[in-house]
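Why Cucumisin? Reviewers of the renewal asked for a concrete example.
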Amino acid sequence: MGNLPKGKVSTSSLYTTMLREVVSSGVESDVLLYSYHRSFNGFAAKLTKDEADKLREKDGVVSVFLSQKMQLHTTRSWDFMGFSKKVLRSAIESDIIVGMLDTGIWPESQSFNDTGFGPIPKKWKGTCQSSDNFTCNKKIIGAKYYKADGDYDPDYDIQSPRDSEGHGSHTSSTAAGAFVSKASLYGLAKGTARAFDDAIADGVDIISLSVGSSSASDYFDDPIAIGTFHSMKNGILTSNSAGNSGPVLSSISNLSPWSLSVAASTIDRKFVTNVKLGNGEIYEGTSINTFDLDGKMYPFIAGAAAPNTSQGYTSEDSRYCDLETLDKTLVEGKILFCDYDSQAYGPVDAGAVGAVFQNSKRKDYVFPYGLPLSNLNLDDGRNVFNYVNTTENPTATIFKTQVEDNQFAPFVVSFSSRGPNPVTADILKPDLAAPGVDILAAWSEIPTLTDTDGDTRIVPYNIVSGTSMACPHATGAATYVKSFHPTWSPAAIKSALMTTAFPMSSENNLEAEFAYGAGHINPAVAVRPGLIYDAGEIDFVNFLCGQGYNPKQLALLTASNSTCSEETKVPVWDLNYPSFALSTTPGNSVTRVFHRTVTNVGSAVSTYKAVVKAPSGLVIQVQPSVISFKSLGQKQSYTVTVGAEVGNSMISGALIWDDGVHQVRSPIVAYASLLE
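Here is what the prediction returned.
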């Protein structure tokens, strides 16, 4: 319902009255689930489809949409970004508050130790929901638990902010965890390692959200887009995970232009799990294997040779080693060869000592399993398959995982959701990439490492991959920038992160900017960007006007009497965004004119020259090509005319404003869109 009503109005009474007018059976106590009344106006209620349609037509309603169950977009990484412990620090960094919207937190982790911390910031208005022996400190200054439907699973849920899953502890310690010396997972990766409504009112400075839906939604049908809009209005930048549905194009799910959308990239470390055969051959695979077979050779059998015929399964079933397809009497005590990648529940259930998978998918990230296991590529898998099927009494062993250098890093991992933007085609998404592969961080000590039967390993730190892990890296970087520039707007902080990002190469990511946006995050440089592309609430409202949104909806969202007119309708190409995108239908050329304004935050007296990077087929003209400043905070405007012959694909270049000290870089992407 947009902004909070002015004056002393009982929102709960207002909501109940509205519901009485649409609910045919009378408003029962369980119809109204939750009221949002601290930072914006709205409620959650149990309604039929017809009742929701009636409510949608009511005055004062911006949008009505179905509640969704969001997906989790599931040390060395900071050093890899050039962000070491010796980086320049801000005097007010201890006054910056990060709000994490996730599965909870494990307060006993050393990552949340408050030793040496001063008093809690005076601006903090939140509370600590203490329960189940959960307490806050000067590091975790507040915590709340939300369960909208009230459906508690006693085997899984804890009615407190305590993390029973691990995801929230991992993201929180990545974004703002304390320095922990020699943190590791069994010796691997040794190194140093209603919520929007409340978060805004409680006084957070940055919000980190590593969840999202499985696909993109229109801005007014997306609770995350709505929540982040209200956060932006209140001066809070939200860092969002892009999603884990890649490498499919247009799979990005968090894509509002007022939030920061983060893709997941690799770091210069990879985990290798070798397999040795009885003939002496050794093959390099991938996984996180902390089990030690001490080099002992075990009998080796193919899943196809051990079907559970008593249950009607054949070798065509058992070759994949799925649960219940294997004959336990044939598999028990042996290492198992499987034709497909799975969670290994089948081999564990059948009593295998270990498993070797051959996998056609890109294995540019790894998992732990409930037994010794290694994933081989198809070529090596074929050789091992031939060995196990043609050798009398074949044997094998699986070694513990070793850490090696990844010389190809950074590149965007295969699972990271890609652009182009399925909602607003001419806004480039994701915005940038950050480390999200094989990241070591804090973990809950409730679940076992793999949740596999027989796995009793409880770990304080875990190695996990996902855009969920990339998002808090960007959150931490945004927090770092905010600590130096506490008055900067969310758009200014986002601009600083994007325009200072390391350029990445399409050699490792064919989707280019649709995979990594502006490039790889570079927090140490982001505090001194030189120029910023700023934007505020009115700029995004005018953008939404230009996109054809209902003026009545926008007025409610902004709590203003502003209406969309020809003067306020801003075309997408004129939103003051730090990147440029233009699309056309396949086979056609396209020309667009972009208007931008930059604000000087570098040297008071400075002159920037436009440097254009344009491959064949892309023409970029900048006017003026030189801009000068006489003071900090001064603004200068320019236009960019881009012409492109895109055929059926994409083409990209860049505009760099260079004053000899700062290089303010913006990607320019033209592409053939298949979207209507």
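The chain is about 20% helix and 25% strand. This is the kind of structural detail the renewal will allow us to pursue systematically.
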